[in-house]
């Protein structure tokens, strides 16, 4: 019996309790998110999602903790290549590969051709027109500001005789 069958059996056995309790609208969205996450979850996340109620409400059994520990151990275990590199680090670091080897490595790496950025003539025309509009607005603002007839400022001597002495 897999887990979905056991969940279905549990729901069938406790149908009256499920029918009496109607979750609020806020719960339905969260249930949908959890079910969507379950499809793409790795083993560890799936184990935690299955036992979420036990982990949140009461002290989980030793079997649940054992399952979580196994998933963590499996998730954190280094792969064989990484282990080999760690064990033979000194031997691998002492030698420098020939340039021919590197050229072969580079040739074997699949490169996606770089696509150039296509800018249509309309986009270019709009950009040039916007630049010219900004330039003309700046020039017009400068001319208007330069030609504005501001009243001349008051000389210091007009304010007070004491300030007149300071000006000279």
List keywords for this structure.
168 residues; mainly alpha; 12 helices; extended
SS summary, helix count: 12
* Number of strand elements: 0
Radius of gyration based on Cα positions = 38 Å
Overall 3D shape = extended
Relative strand content: under 5%
Distance between the termini: 106 Å
Order of helices and strands: HHHHHHHHHHHH
- Low-confidence region ranges: none
Task: Name the helicity range.
Answer: over 70%
**Main sheet overview:** none
Helix/strand-derived category reads mainly alpha
Give the integer mean of the pLDDT values.
Answer: 79
Summarize the structure.
With 168 residues, the chain is mainly alpha-helical. It contains 12 helices and no strands. It has a domain of 74 residues.
Q: What this model shows, in words?
A:
This protein is mainly alpha-helical. The chain has a domain at 3-76. It is 74% helix and 0% strand. It is built from 12 helices and no strands. The chain has helices spanning 3-13, 15-20, 25-40, 43-50, 52-57, 62-76, 80-87, 89-94, 99-108, 121-147, 156-159, 161-167. Helix 4 (43-50) packs antiparallel against helix 6. It starts with a helix and ends with a helix. The model has no long low-confidence stretch (mean pLDDT 79).
